[in-house]
Amino acid sequence: MSKVWFITGATRGLGTQIGRAALAAGDTVVVTGRRREAVTQAFGPDNDRVLSLALDVRREDQARAAVEAAVGRFGRIDVLVNNAGYGALAIFEETNDADARAQYDTNLFGVMNVTRAVLPVMRRRRSGRIINVSSLGGIVGGQSGSLYCGAKFAVEGFSEALAEEVARLGIRVSIVEPGFFRTDFLDEKSAHYSSRALEDYAEVSAQLRRAYRDHNHKQAGDPMKLARAIVSIAGHENPPLRFAAGSDAVASVRGKISRLQADLDAWESLSRNTDADSAANERPEGALEA
Is 152 annotated as catalytic? Predict the structure, then answer.
């Protein structure tokens, strides 16, 4: 049975490729972006398998309206892809509060707004797939990623908790963690750099910007292949909770696992010594780990 997809950030890059891959698989797509004309330019005029909608994910009212329009046209939403976002790539001390709030408003709260609007549709049908596009930066932090990684780490925590909450309702959640892919993510129109400059960080900031500029459109990852992989995940009976995309992501995640294991082993004795003498070894069923 063909699926109905709802994709955010579909005007370009990975979002566009996911929409095209879903269409190639015989599915129907609702493709959204802040400017509807840009979505239409990417997918052409609406037809019996394509609906283009304006959606600024930062606006909860727009998320609800877009979902209502999608259901009004196609009757359901089978797959939600939260893809909209951008990269705030700057040394933390060179950013300000407005930079941080703007990054979180789109990359985290935007995901929550659209998910909150779609969940009632999926609950009624007792089925659905939610695919949240995180990043390698959602599991491994790095220089210039304090805001971006912070937001993506939050997406991962949100998604992992959500997955437990909705599994009983037939809804599955997957987190996609792309490494560096050959999209326009590092273009100036997508990446946001420092709002101010501090001398102590001048050298590293310049190095990072040069590295991003030199790496742009030379990344190892193929966005079309990733889009096809996401279509495959959406159709799998047992999709992964996390999917590291790209050989660079696989290597970095393995390194992170090794570092976590090393820290856990090295400090296990002190960790266990923080328990109360009468502490139970089990957490309440269904509760948080901490």
Answer: yes
201 in catalytic set: no
- What gap in Å lies between CA 56 and CA 46, rounded to an integer? 19
Integer angstrom CA distances of residue 67 from 38, 41, 150, 183, 271: 19, 21, 28, 27, 46
- Encode pLDDT of 110-151 as tens digits: 999 999 999 999 999 999 999 999 999 999 999 889 999 999
pLDDT of residue 216: 65
Active site residue 225: no
Note the pTM of the prediction, 2 decimals.
0.89
- Residue 139 in any domain: the answer is yes
pLDDT above 70 (res 219):
no
Q: Which segments of 80-181 does DSSP mark as H helices, in order?
A: 97-104, 110-125, 146-166
**pLDDT of res. 202:** 86
Catalytic residue among 144, 152, 159, 212: 152
Is the residue at 288 inside a domain?
no
Q: Please, which residues have CB within 8 angstroms of residue 211's CB and are 6 or more apart in sequence?
A: none
Q: How far apart are CA 58 and CA 112, in angstroms?
A: 9
State the average pLDDT for the chain: 91
Counted domains in the chain = 1
Q: Is 189 left (phi over 0), alpha (psi -120 to 50) or beta?
A: alpha
Give bridge partners of residue 132 from the DSSP assignment.
82, 175
Question: Given 134, 144, 194, 252, which residue is catalytic?
Answer: 134
| Residue 277 resides in a domain | no
Query: Does any domain span residue 72?
Result: yes
Which residue among the candidates 104, 148, 201, 212 is catalytic per the annotation? 148
